[in-house]
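Annotated sample (chain length 352).
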Amino acid sequence: MIILQRVKLLAPGPVEKSENVTMRNCLFLFLIPLTFILSCQKGNDDTSNPNPPSPSPALYFPPVSGTEWQTTTVASLGWNDTELNNLYTYLQQKGTKAFIILKNGKIVAERYFGTFTADSIWYWASAGKTMTAMLVGISQKEGLLNINNKTSQYLGTGWTSLPLAKEDLITIRHQLTMTTGLDEAVTPDNDCTLPGCLVYKADAGSRWAYHNAPYTILDKVVENASGMTYNAYFQQKIRDKTGMNGLWVKTGYNNVYYSTARSMARFGLLMLNKGKWDQTAVLNDTSYFNTQINTSQTLNLSYGYLTWLNGKASYMLPAVQFVFSGMLVPNAPADMFSALGKNDQKVYVVPS
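Output written by the structure step:
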């Protein structure tokens, strides 16, 4: 299942849930102010049942062009329609802009609030990081780069203010895993990507810290490796193959993706299907995709390649150097992985 939501909450962190509403075996996408998309496949948690569960239906993919998107009903799924309506009330109270539930790729529920409509465009914030991670994987599969190579191989030396020996320790993999060792607390703007803002805190790979600047510089790595603008490469490799709309927009030092809620749902469905849009391979690298949605380093077990993970023994959060015990979202399925952005721009994916 996939859920996409745009809401006004702080993220990442435990998901607020409406009372008496349980959504198992789902993929959730959250965006603030709010697009919420969820796509679920039915699972079976009752181990006492001697009858094995029936195979899950094949995933449905809407056409790449046009507005057609098949639907399914709450009644046919045996869901509680009253509780779903209560959830809509809850979402409106939280300032949600859009909410979508996908079951096996088909729309079960789609709601927009206030003046927000299906054609409205909204920012993904850091939920776009997960899409960047996929694009880096595509670049590697095409032989344009190697994530184990030092970043300076693609940017030239002096892209940081570090001594050369320390700068040479930083690889693309460190950028994907938030382990560059660069100081994330630079003032006045820790999003600054200028060399003078990229200062030494620790050796690469020895410290996990959520830091936008080295992530954003991945855009330039992809551009230099591909010889294309970031938007053009993204549109060719991901957007046009999935029927998404949207555009990356420079905002200060950041590069932020904007699209409709349904485009975010399409990306969630692509993640649910392990980088394939129906039978079209978008990221044709199973090893890379599996690493993206699994623990990528030993410092923050709940972080893959620019992707948040549930079901781990501990997790770290942005802005703090503290390891919390337990799962990132304890009231969600353990196999959930997520794209999370500022103000609750979120995509939650639950393969089970």
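Annotation: Residues 2-45+56-126+244-349 form one domain.
Annotation: The chain has eleven helices and 15 strands.
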